[in-house]
From TrEMBL:
InterPro entries tied to this protein: Rieske_2Fe-2S (IPR017941), Rieske_2Fe-2S_sf (IPR036922)
Highest rank taxon of the organism: Bacteria
Species of the source: Kordiimonas lipolytica
Record keywords: 2Fe-2S, Iron, Iron-sulfur, Metal-binding
Protein name: Rieske (2Fe-2S) protein
Pfam family, one: Rieske
Length: 126
């Protein structure tokens, strides 16, 4: 299945304006991740940010299988090999570069990528 285009956060129910700081680069060591939650009224949007091989990746923190966040708690998203993102609910594994599920109940589906840019020492919404 083809990956959908990156999600513009201002188009979500939470309505995050372009230029919003998502995370500072200093808070993302190699193989480091961040679980970020935005709320607006009753709406909630959960993102995951992952640094992997020196690159940054931002996805909606929502597994395509059952819709749960990949992490049960905290900022850890990689499996024990540090090569795949793992969903803690049923163990699906995802390529951190593309968000493609490579093993598990949603094999062939993608995490929803988020549009962002890197500048001024941080990751910002587009
Ligand atoms: S909810 Fe992620 S594998 Fe089932």
């Amino acid at each position: 299945m083809r990956a959908p285009p990156p999600l513009a956060l201002e188009d979500t129910a939470v309505g995050i304006p372009p230029g919003t700081l998502l995370v500072k680069l200093d808070d993302l060591p190699e193989h480091g991740g961040k679980d970020i939650v935005f709320r607006e009224g009753t709406h909630r949007l959960q993102l995951l940010v992952q640094r992997f091989d020196g690159q940054f990746h931002v996805y909606e923190n929502r597994c395509p299988h059952a819709g749960t966040p990949l992490n049960l708690f905290g900022d850890r998203f990689l499996d024990t090999t540090n090569k795949r993102l793992i969903c803690r609910t049923h163990g699906a594994l995802f390529d951190p570069l593309t968000g493609l599920c490579v093993r598990g109940p949603c094999k062939g589906d993608h995490l929803r990528a988020v549009a962002f840019e890197v500048r001024d020492g941080g990751l910002y919404s587009l």
